[in-house]
Each structure stands twice: as C-alpha cells, then as structure tokens.
Design a protein that fits this description.
137 residues; mainly alpha; Serine Threonine Protein Phosphatase 5, Tetratricopeptide repeat; 65% helix; 0% strand
C-alpha cells in the first residue's frame, strides 16, 4: 500500500456500499472524484491522528490536525458529512479542554446544522442532548 497522499483512494476494489457518501463512478468526472476521495481520506487520517495525539497527551498536535481536517473540508473538497463530523470533533475538544469553549460550542452548533441538512437524525439528537447539558441558551 502506498503512503503517497496523491495515490490515496485509487483502490477500486472497495465497493461503494462501504460508505454511503461515496459518489457514483462517473468517468467524465473521475479526476475530480479522485481528488475528492484523496482529500476526504487525508482529512479522515488527520482526524484519526488527532485522536491519538489527544490520547497520548499531545493536544497541541491534536488541535493542529483537527484544524487542518476542518480546513481541508470547508471549501467542499471532502465528501458531504465529513466537515460536520470534523467540526463536531474539534468543537468537543475545544470545549472539553477549556481551550476555547465559546468557539467549541459554535462549531458544535455548525456541525448540528450540517447534520440536520443531511438528515443525520441520530447525530442531531446526540448534539442536542450535549448542547442541552453543556451549553443551554
């Protein structure tokens, strides 16, 4: 398996049903789809590494990686839903660590809006419960 980020996502043996957000194969848009897949994979890897950073006691790197994952997805360069998941993760860490609780709540509310728009009701309920407990209006 390659570690070159330009080669991420080129394995076509994985069925699209693995992830509902995988766009259908369209040969006319293949380069764009491959860039979308590569960016989404890179952002997901940053999210996973951030989890390791926080667990390993290295929050500075964890925050940097989550910020980068959000930035990669903010201009639509990731699959739908990834931006909301990364905003939610970053918002929780900002709040839980006390680094910037106000911004953390704002990010969680933005993630909730995205979850609502994409019909992710279970995520909306989870965020609503969290907001009710931690950031009542």
């Amino acid at each position: 398996m390659t570690t070159d980020p330009r080669e991420l996502g080129r394995d076509t043996t994985v069925p699209a049903s693995v992830d509902e957000s995988v766009p259908p194969r369209d040969t006319a848009n293949r380069p764009a789809q491959e860039r979308l897949l590569a960016t989404s994979a890179a952002a997901a890897a940053l999210d996973a590494l951030a989890t390791c950073d926080f667990a390993g006691g290295n929050p500075a790197d964890g925050f940097a990686r989550l910020e980068r994952a959000v930035a990669l997805c903010e201009d639509g360069r990731c699959w739908s839903g990834h931006l909301d998941a990364f905003r939610h993760a970053l918002g929780l860490k900002l709040f839980q660590t006390g680094r910037d609780r106000k911004r953390g709540v704002a990010m969680i509310r933005a993630a909730r809006a995205g979850f609502t728009d994409s019909g992710r009701e279970a995520d909306v309920k989870e965020v609503d419960a969290w907001l009710k407990e931690h950031a009542p209006r």
